[in-house]
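Message: I would value a second opinion on how I read folds in C-alpha cell form. Give me a protein, with the fold worked out from its sequence. Write it directly below this note and I will take it from there.
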Amino acid sequence: MDDLQFLTAWSEPLIRTGQVLLVMLLAWLAQRVLTRGITRLGQRYPQLPPELLLPLRGLLRWMILGSAFMLVLERFGVSAEVLWTALTGFAAVAAVAFFAIWSVLSNMFCAVLIFSLGPFRMGDKVEVVESADKPGVKGRVIAINLFYTTLEDLSEDHQGALVQVPNSLFFQKAVRRWR
C-alpha cells in the first residue's frame, strides 16, 4: 500500500515534467530542422539574399521558442489568454511611453549626431531656414547640450537674446552656416 501512495503522489508531477521535457525537445528539433532547411534553401538557390534568410531564421526560431514557452506555462496552469492579455497590455504601455518621450530621444540622438558629424561648431553663425520667403532663427552658437543648442540672437530687434533651438530642428530644416 505504501508503494501505491508514493506512485499516486508523484505521478502528476512526473507526468507534467515529462510533458515539459517533450515540448522542449520537440521545439528544439523543430527549430533545428527549420533552420537547417532554410540554410539548405539558401545554398540551393544562391539568388536568395542572405539578408532575407538570416532574419527569417531568427523569426522562426523566436516563434518556435515563444510557442514552446507558452505550452510549458500552460502545462503549469497559466492560461494563454491571461498571458496574451498581459503581453499586449505591456506592449501598449511601452508604445505610449515611447511615443511620449520620442521628442526627448530624438533631441538626444541629434545631439550625438551634431557632436560626431560636426555640421556646426561653437562660435559658428547659423540660421535655421524656415522657407524661402520667411527668415528663420539666426545666431551665434554659444552652447550645445543633449537637448538643445543655444544661439545668441544677432538680429537687430533682439540682439544679445539667447535662443534655445531643439537639436532635432537642425536635421529637419535647412541650415545656413558661417564660420
Remarks:
- The beta strands are 125-129, 137-144, 148-153, 162-166, 174-178.
